[in-house]
């Protein structure tokens, strides 16, 4: 389910163990970490408890979206311990090291924003906006719409179309390494890459391992 890169050869993930794994004791992995580029994994915390569908490192804070409780979890010690914060029916989170207290979430009603690190509901710290799936830079939002359009904005209320995924792609997830280097996955497990902020895209991985340019 959730997967993010937090440093050289250092990955964080969550989700479910393989059905064929005889050592699995729970359907929920909690937070797991690899420091050798996914060759081996160790459990960090919340095994058997949390199923994070999104993990976002924002400076000193790691945010997780637990699908079991619809709750934002936050950690300042690399996921060893967690603070439970607001509950929100969301599909993904986005945050950036430059503004770690500002957290964006994609919901069925559009884009939501917290300015207190995913803090309190229903005190107004979350604000409705627009958009589907997004990733944040300090002063820029980059969103992937359901029809494959790439949208950019600064405040979540207005958007400009930047480009579109290759024809036939069915959008699933977007991540921004920086405002110009974007990666998107679709429901066929293909991976698409843009190096110009979403204007043009190249398919860098297909399930059959073929690649093609667009």
From TrEMBL:
InterPro entries to which the protein is assigned, alphabetical: WD40/YVTN_repeat-like_dom_sf, Xyloglucanase_GH74
Organism: Streptomyces subrutilus
Listed GO biological process terms: xyloglucan metabolic process
Positions of region (Disordered): 115-134, 185-214
Entry protein name: Exo-alpha-sialidase
UniProt feature, compositional bias: Basic and acidic residues: 189-198, 205-214
